[in-house]
Amino acid sequence: MYKRILDHLNTAILLFNSELALTYINTAGEILLADSANHLIGQSASDLFKASDPALFLNLKQCLTMEEPLVERSLVLNRLSQSVTINLSATPLLGNEQPMEILVELQQVDNHLRISKEERLLTQQNTARLLVRGLAHEIKNPLGGLRGAAQLLDLELHDPELKEYTQIIIAESDRLQGLMDKMLGPNKLPNKKTLNIHEVLERVRQLVHAASSGSLSIKYDYDPSIPDIQADKDQLIQAILNITRNAVQATEGKGNILIKTRIHRHLCIGRKHYKLAAKIDISDDGPGIDTDMLQQIFYPMITGRAEGTGLGLSIAQSLINQHSGLIECNSEPGHTVFSIYLPIFVQGEPS
Predict the structure, then answer these.
(1) Are 48 and 7 in contact (CB under 8 A)?
(2) Arithmetic mean of pLDDT, 233-256
């Protein structure tokens, strides 16, 4: 019974025996250490924490010997792919008045920073989207009148050279109309159906591969255990295609792109908590994104390319937001990753 309770805690719980070998770890601990219980059970605390703080093993040993609690704050825990900041507390458990086991609690303290960042990102995007939509609506009204006047004028003119000018006005009005429609973003609710996310990713990979030269490498690393999700297939294809094309342009069609999927547990988007989510990473080995630009790339009309419209990533974020998800980006020279988080709704949960 107690294991069921511990598995539902958000705090990582680890239990070591008197030899400081791991005998139990809850689900939150697996998530924090980015490894499974089957692989971690039996490992020594020295092996688990040596990459983070070699002295920690000695402190845990002293905690067990002296029968005194141990508290470590702002400890950097190095995992397989990244580092996180944690607070650690250890309590020796006595058996027959002798220390038999040691209970270790790990609490991730940089998690609230990530949640604040997501809330700020969502607020900024919603504000920018409302501003742009209002501007686009204001432009569309006189634009329609301009096009109508040009059409009427075109009917009255008989000189082909003069009609050429009215045709330019009409064509440019249509082009601006299309741009305004894109700025307004998705105009229909997603038609969600059960689908496998890898079907969407394979479709995107085929589209990008067909349009690219032979010097572009698009590889994939899929987690087949990801359950089906409820989503609009066409909208997901559009969103992921926008991001993947962005990676192709960043590498000038000659680099390496990797599409990777993994299960992500206990995801918070804004203030809403999801037990499971599909995480899709689209990474490239291009030159990276400038730090100043990185804070604005999801805003409409923001682009680092002279020929770009700055709408692709903004539209992608809007489409993913409509699926209760979020897109994040981390970038450094030679390695840029766009991470898409899509909640997986278990039976009985509202989608």
Answers:
(1) no
(2) 89
Q: Specify the residue for token string 């008045």.
A: 97
Q: How far apart are CA 334 and CA 255, in angstroms?
A: 10
Instruction: Please tell me the pTM assigned to this model.
Output: 0.59
Residue 6: other Cβ atoms inside 10 A: 18
Contacts of 75 (CB under 8 A, 6+ apart): 52, 53, 56, 85, 86, 87, 88
Alpha-carbon gap, residue 246 to 255, rounded angstroms: 12
Angle, vertex CA 283, rays to CA 220 and CA 200, nearest 5: 50
- Residues of the chain with pLDDT > 90, as a percent, come to 24
Question: In the sheet that 22-25 helps form, which strands lie side by side, from edge to edge?
Answer: 22-25, 12-17, 98-108, 83-95, 70-78
Quote the pLDDT of residue 236: 92
Separation between Cα atoms, residue 32 and residue 81, nearest integer Å: 11
CA dist 296 and 15 (Å) reads 44
- Residue identified by tokens 């962005």 is 246
Cβ–Cβ under 8 Å, residues 32 and 77: yes
Give, in order, the Cα–Cα distances in Å from 299 to each of 211, 293, 305, 318, 347. 27, 10, 14, 10, 35
Per-residue model confidence (pLDDT) at position 349: 56
Q: What is the mean pLDDT of the chain?
A: 82
**Angle, CA of 324, 328 and 330, to the nearest 5°:** 170
pLDDT 10s digits, 73-125: 878 887 655 677 888 899 998 777 666 899 999 988 765 555 555 566 666 66
Pairing status of strand 193-195 against strand 217-221: unpaired
Going by C-alpha positions, the residue among 257, 207, 212, 263 that lies closest to residue 234 is 207
Q: Both tokens of residue 20? A: 């400081």
Q: Cα(43)–Cα(204) distance, rounded to whole angstroms?
A: 41
